[in-house]
Each structure stands twice: as structure tokens, then as C-alpha cells.
Recover the amino acids of this structure.
């Protein structure tokens, strides 16, 4: 395990007031979240909720024929497991680790006990859920109305926001699966972005060379999602350690 990890790297845990955080801290378990690990299948019920720190989890909707696309991502800004406290217990989406790393898991029972106290944990989780709904809604609109280039730029930027560097480990096949488009479309688009000097792509590694240029090529969807997360969650980060990362 990485000894440098701490719960404050997750923005939701960092936003909890000291008393509420100390109440659950002994129950938080640091876990490795390797690339490709399936945390929950469609229709499955989570026994734990996950607060990623350096990992990113992709929520996929899987069709009857096996095709799938990403409906949202969960990184250091959020939590996997909103179905538990929203009352549905299960969801039709699959949760799979998109970027390997670490996170903290908490038994579902412990989260629900804290949530049902109707205190800061409940209010924070509900605000996060609203932000996540915005991300899901905006993804649906983006996939319907915007070009593959705009979708790819949006996805790259949202992923970068959850990482400590400008490098991503991701194949074109996986990106195509995330966006629900043909691999050829991703190959052509990534090639165009590389030729214009915005990214460098080599053997499954993507390096963003010009973030501002990438932002100029994306659609409004990126800023809509980013601003909503900021509006709903940023003012709560009152317990974050100075060593923790910021947006």
C-alpha cells in the first residue's frame, strides 16, 4: 500500500466536519483499486461504498447485446454507492475501475448509520448526488449533440481533473467503449489532436500538452459539470489537509 495516501485526498471525506469524520475514520479501509476491477455488476448491491483518492471508477450502462458506454465517472471528488442512501439499493449500471489507484472503502451499514443521523453526512451526500445527476445528464446530451472530438476533449479534461499529472494510461479501444463510439472515430480524432500539438499519444499513454487548447476544442458540457460540482461541493472542504490536492 502507498503510505502517502490519506482520506483527505478524497474531497467528500475532506469536506466532513471533524466530529463526523472522526466518527467514521476508524472504519475507513485503504484499498488498492486496480485497472479493470469490477466493483459492482449491473443489478448488484454494494456491501461497501468507495471513496477514490487516486483511482477513477467508470459507471457503465450495459445493453442487452453487451454494448456499453460510460454514463459518469467517479474520482477523488466523489463516492461510489449513492444507490444505498437513495433507497434503491441497486442500479442498472456496472462500476469498473477506469484508472488504477487507491481509495477508501466503508461498510454500507456504517455509511447508512451516519446518513440516517440527518446531519452533515446526509447533506453532503445529497449535494454530491445532485452534482452526479448533472454529470450523467450532461453526458447524455453531449453524446447526442456534440462531435466525437468535443466528447473526447470533455472526457480527457474531466479525467485530468481527477489526476495529479497530465498523463493518462488508456487505450483507444477503452476510450471508444467509454464514449460508445467506434474505435476508428477515436483513432482519427486523437490523431488530429496530436497533429495540432494538444496531446501526445503512444502505446496506450496519453499526455496532454496544451490544456487550454484542449478546453478550446471541447463543448460547453465540460464547464457545466465542473461548475456544478464546484457550486455544490467546494465550500464544504473545511477540513482538508494542506498536503491534500486541490482543483
Amino acid at each position: 500500500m502507498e503510505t502517502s495516501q490519506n482520506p483527505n485526498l478524497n474531497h467528500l471525506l475532506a469536506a466532513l466536519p471533524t466530529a463526523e469524520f472522526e466518527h467514521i475514520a476508524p472504519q475507513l479501509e485503504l484499498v488498492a483499486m486496480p485497472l479493470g476491477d469490477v466493483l459492482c455488476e449491473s443489478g448488484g448491491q454494494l456491501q461497501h461504498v468507495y471513496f477514490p483518492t487516486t483511482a477513477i471508477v467508470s459507471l457503465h450502462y450495459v445493453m442487452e447485446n453487451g454494448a456499453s458506454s460510460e454514463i459518469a465517472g467517479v474520482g477523488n471528488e466523489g463516492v461510489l454507492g449513492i444507490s444505498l442512501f437513495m433507497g434503491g439499493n441497486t442500479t442498472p449500471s456496472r462500476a469498473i475501475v477506469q484508472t488504477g489507484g487507491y481509495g477508501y472503502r466503508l461498510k454500507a451499514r456504517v455509511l447508512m448509520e451516519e446518513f440516517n443521523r440527518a446531519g452533515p453526512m446526509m447533506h453532503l451526500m445529497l449535494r454530491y448526488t445532485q452534482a452526479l445527476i448533472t454529470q450523467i445528464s450532461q453526458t447524455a446530451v453531449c453524446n447526442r449533440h456534440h462531435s466525437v472530438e468535443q466528447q473526447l476533449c470533455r472526457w480527457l479534461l474531466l479525467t485530468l481533473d481527477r489526476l495529479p499529472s497530465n498523463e493518462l494510461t488508456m487505450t483507444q479501444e477503452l476510450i471508444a467503449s467509454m464514449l460508445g463510439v467506434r474505435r476508428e472515430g477515436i483513432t482519427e480524432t486523437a490523431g488530429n489532436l496530436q497533429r495540432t500539438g494538444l496531446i501526445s499519444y503512444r502505446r496506450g499513454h496519453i499526455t496532454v500538452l496544451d490544456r487550454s487548447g484542449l478546453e478550446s476544442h471541447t463543448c460547453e458540457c465540460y464547464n457545466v459539470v465542473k461548475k456544478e460540482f464546484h457550486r455544490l461541493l467546494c465550500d464544504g472542504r473545511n477540513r482538508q489537509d494542506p498536503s491534500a490536492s486541490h482543483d
